[in-house]
Design goal:
This protein is α/β, with parallel strands linked by helices. 42% of the residues lie in helices and 24% in strands. The strands form 3 sheets. The chain has a 6-stranded antiparallel beta sheet. α4 crosses α5 and α5 packs across α6.
């Protein structure tokens, strides 16, 4: 459970210091006051990423030189830690006051799942949004996956730089290709395994929504002919001349996609808005179930719900609340107090222009 949070120059918060001691918490106020910003700060602590933007500079307060997030996290089992993130000209991470140099050593101190109206774009948007979703899910649970992603990303950037240079040294390209092949195969295998898990979880959720008659599946659209390191390296040999002309690596997990099928049809192309919203909701709920089911994981699970329940019917909301109640703590944003019984014992915080009135 998140028991205390401090924000400085984060979005529209100049200096915030509040205690949070309830399982269900409501941030209430008109639009544009900073409710979603609070959810974003909690999510940032979990993954050093925002669920709203990929640009760190967008997070700091306008006119500020950086931002700071500090929090105290504890569990009923007695586990407690102090987490601090500071972004100025350099990034500083601290756990219990001790400096942490690697992001992989900092993230996953808490598990956070954020629900927002923009989740539908995981289904309807470009392939990068779907890759980001699955990559963040796997990285939240598997440290090795994050390392493989980082190794691959560095090698890919370096190889593309050589491909665009005047002197396209083949030996240098081959050196990066070895790294790409090794880590690329590992990335693909993790994605295949987790997509199967995600598919099964969503099927079970659809039954809970009385949609058990839906034929649902997820198809990983991997690059043809790339199944192991040898085939990866062989593909590089085949594609290298074309890539030297184009100045870019033409294949790999950085352009893979996964196709969501609803009654055997691609949901992105043939699904209704209602179907797309339901599946995007299920994808995030499946993430909650996956986190909650992990044995020997004593990290607190926190759910962040940004104004997504208003469009749900009562039956859907009831099942949604049932699933997210597996989390140790939940934070919701609303413009007005909700009437659902689920919130009868919720702690209410009123938000006015970056100021929290508890």
């Amino acid at each position: 459970m998140l028991s205390h949070i401090v924000l400085k120059d984060f979005r529209n918060y100049v200096d915030l210091d509040i205690k949070l001691d309830n399982k269900v918490n409501l941030f209430i106020g008109p639009n544009g006051q900073g409710k979603t910003n609070l959810l974003e700060s909690i999510f940032f602590l979990s993954m050093l990423r925002s669920f709203r933007t990929s640009q760190i500079r967008d997070i700091r307060r306008i006119g500020g030189n950086g931002f700071y997030i500090g929090a105290q996290v504890k569990t009923e089992a007695g586990w407690s830690k102090s987490l601090e993130v500071e972004y100025t000209s350099i990034r500083k991470l601290r756990i219990d006051g001790s400096g942490i140099s690697l992001a992989s050593e900092f993230i996953r101190q808490i598990h956070a799942v954020a629900f927002s109206p923009e989740d539908i774009t995981i289904v309807t948007g470009n392939s990068g949004l779907r890759r980001r979703f699955i990559d963040m899910l796997i990285a939240s649970l598997t440290p090795r996956y994050l390392t493989a992603l980082q190794n691959y990303s560095i090698a890919l950037k370096s190889r593309n730089s050589v491909l665009r240079s005047q002197k396209k040294d083949v030996d240098t390209l081959k050196a990066y290709e070895q790294i790409l092949a090794q880590n690329g195969v590992e990335i693909v295998k993790y994605r295949q395994d987790f997509l199967k898990m995600l598919e099964q979880e969503i099927k079970e959720l659809l039954k809970g929504f009385n949609k058990g008659n839906v034929d649902f599946s997820i198809r990983y659209k991997i690059q043809n002919g790339v199944t192991n390191q040898e085939s990866y390296l062989a593909r590089f040999e085949t594609e290298r001349k074309k890539e030297m002309f184009r100045g870019q690596t033409a294949f790999g997990p950085q352009i893979d996609d996964f196709e969501i099928l609803y009654n055997k049809k691609p949901l992105r192309n043939y699904g209704s808005t209602g179907q797309c919203r339901l599946i995007s909701l299920c994808m995030k709920m499946a993430k909650v179930n996956i986190f909650a089911s992990r044995e020997n994981d004593n990290k607190p699970l926190i759910v962040l719900v940004d104004d997504v329940t208003g469009e749900l019917d009562q039956m859907t909301k009831s099942y949604f609340y049932q699933v997210i109640n597996k989390a140790e703590q939940a934070f919701f944003t609303f413009t007005d107090l909700p009437s659902d019984k689920y919130f009868d014992e919720a702690k209410v915080y009123k938000i006015e222009n970056g100021i929290v009135i508890s």
